[in-house]
């Protein structure tokens, strides 16, 4: 009948929830109802109100759940496409493999050229001096500067 009585048997709830429990109890429970049954019913209401007013925080998202969410959104957007979506996915994977192999081939060729240049030119002192002379001539002569500026 009073908030103090509710506070005696339900101290785990806040004052606002205790007041609400008392009000609900006065409206829905008859006076001839047993005390244990009334307490059980009102504790169910108290747990529900506590869950509503102070929900448990959800766990932080993980990378796996984010990828799963993004994949489901992609599938929802492309469901109307039917088999076209899978065709596009397979095509994209093939393109990635092709371009990565082309890139790797070019990097290996460049590495091979650099190794040959280092071994044949830089390691030999005479060739190294001639290379530096030619390089400084090309970068210092006005003809070559004009030539490079025309091309770029």
Main traits of this protein?
80% helix; 152 residues; 7 helices; mainly alpha
Summarize, please:
With 152 residues, the chain is mainly alpha-helical.
Molecular structure report:
With 152 residues, the chain is mainly α. Helices cover 80% and strands 0% of the residues. The chain has seven helices and no strands. It has helices at 3-9, 15-28, 35-53, 63-78, 83-122, 125-140, 142-151. The longest helix has 40 residues, at 83-122. The chain is elongated. The model has no long low-confidence stretch (mean pLDDT 81).
The major β-sheet equals: none
How widely separated are the two ends? 92 Å
Determine the number of helices (DSSP H or I, runs of at least 4 residues).
Answer: 7
Question: In angstroms, what is the radius of gyration?
Answer: 40 Å
Write the layout of secondary structure elements.
Layout: H1 3-9, H2 15-28, H3 35-53, H4 63-78, H5 83-122, H6 125-140, H7 142-151
Helix pairs in contact: 2-3
